Amino acid sequence: MPDMTEVRKTRSHGERLSGVCRWTLAVLACLWLAWCCAIGPLYWYNVGLDGFGWTNMLILALSFAVFFAIVVGLVRFGLGRHVLPRYFIRRHERLREEVEGTPTTILGILLKHVHHAAYSRPGRAVHAVIIWIGRKLIRCTDCWWKLMLVFVIGWLWIPTTLLAAYGADIRSQIREFSWAWNQWTGLKQPYIGFFSFVPMDIYPTAHYMWPANPTYLTDQHNIVLTVFYGAVAMISRYFTDSNDAGIVVLAALQWLFAAFCCAATANRFFNLPWRRLGVGSFDFSHPERHDCWIQRDFMHPEAGMVARPSRLRAGAKTRFAVLLFFMVCPLAVFSTISLTKSPLFAFAFVWWFGVWYELHMTHIKALPTINGKPTRLRKRSMLAFFMSSVVMLISAKYAWYIIALALILALLNDRKRWKTYLVTLLLPTVIIHGGIVFLADSGAIISGDPIESRGIQLQQIARVAKYNPQGIPEDAAKKLEPVFNLDQMADAYYQQDADPVKSSGIQSKKVSYKWRTVTKEDMENFNKAWWEIVKANPVIALDAFFAECFGYFDVADLPYVSMDYYVNNDYVQEDNDWIHLYNHEWRDKVAGFAKKWGKIPVLGWLTHGNLYVTLTLLIGAAEVVLRRWRSLSWHLPLLLLMGVMITAPANNFERHMLPVVLVFGFLCLQFWRESRRQRHAAVSVGS
């Protein structure tokens, strides 16, 4: 028999090592956020890391202290301890004792009057009204269709007064489909040629990727959306001689989809509808797990258990806060009618995230049963999980990476429900992603140019070409010569956006990317040339990297492109047939109000996506420290989305942050619930 003392020592050493590793990850997350805040002012004034000084060091130290304090507070809250230090608790107790007795300080006298006012007749009346409103709010949001009505009514002003919001993407998609339709109807059009300029040249897409048989559909903006948007616009042109009616219809459909997704997910987080069905059986060996359960019918035990609503459902204040965010925050409001792929993906992700919460809450460890069998996912939730995965896959190319990661984590964490995950995650991925790959390989469509995913590398090369052209090794310049014009790259370089370097756009542009003549063999030397340049210019390369991504994690950085851009840009306000004639000035006022709000220090942070990205990362760090591995298993896609932001072609592009922003309130609610459960478990063990 091993010595129990040695076993305890080994266990304590392992626990200490595990704690050190978990806190190290939390510290690294705080350091990354603090670093982005510290270097932000450098890139605002286009200085670079060479200008890093004591002021930036002070910002780094203060930011780290704030972020780490938030993580510590979250961990203490999660463990059921007091969030504030003991000193503030003692001061609060002393002040309360003084108020109950004879107050001697100005604050004590003021609080005494407030205390008496609260218990006066008017105070009791106000309190009763607040309680009544709270109960009515809970009753008006106790099922998905009522929540759907709330979102529809609250958002009704958006499509009726703004009609639609869009940018260049949907115009390119409509143009692609129109060229493809002309080809299908027998109209001859230019294809590959030096003097030809077709939709695939706008992005651009390298000519070596074009099949020999002419085709004008690409997966640049997701082929399914391109066909759907283009078909609706074509029908609109047939009946109205304009794309505008079709664009308005598409915006209205997305608005309805957004309301449905938010309502379905809010219902799952607010009301936990699966518990109404009494799923699961009572496990008498673990009564502490069921402090929120009551028997459905005491005369008939076989009827099972049902949840006690007052202990499980979200309260009125929580519902009000979440709904207020969706109704007021410009990020959510403008996204409902913004016809670009990111908002559609974001609302589908919200729907998907809600089903994950149901899976998390019906996990066998969260909802144990007597026979040891897992709780089956409801049929409507199975359909929701499948359809949300489909919409994610047709709206964003990186969706299949997120779904693949979620599938792997789910099979590791919830193996007994493996069939559910294969049907709802693997099957749509095989159908949608596999189908698109097949269409590209068969030459039916043109796949997106891989240069789109090399934004960081392009920015690093272009920054070196701009600020230190002599530092480019001769061998690297020779390898890049068939792919890029270095002089044009230097001239087109803009630290916030990699699109100019990629020669993207229909306007007059610098031809830095030689998409007409580059070959697949030429691209094989690209990574080698890039690495040689980075090794020769490490500081400039780091500047290019941080300048393109720091804004996603710097709460003080203003967005490069905010969501209000899609409401009143030139495409909406000028370059269309009749949309610009409808409430032209009202669009400017709405977008201007949102922009002014966003520029207000601290208060304006509430309208910026990077605040919610930062807080989400801190909550994730706290979950690591608290060892909430099951929660982390379905929160890790949020971290993967942050990786997508870093590799995105532009810095602080708010539409890339929408999925994290829209689920943030639900994430906070779930963290609070798990903390409360852990606190109750600690109290029951202590008693």
UniProtKB/TrEMBL annotation:
The lineage of its organism: Bacteria, Bacillati, Actinomycetota, Actinomycetes, Bifidobacteriales. The keyword Membrane applies. The keyword Plastid does not apply. The chain crosses the membrane at residues 20-45, 57-79, 144-168, 191-210, 222-239, 245-266, 320-338, 383-412, 418-440, 632-650, 656-672. This is Membrane protein. Keywords: Membrane, Transmembrane, Transmembrane helix. Pfam families: DUF6020 (PF19484). Coiled coil: none annotated.
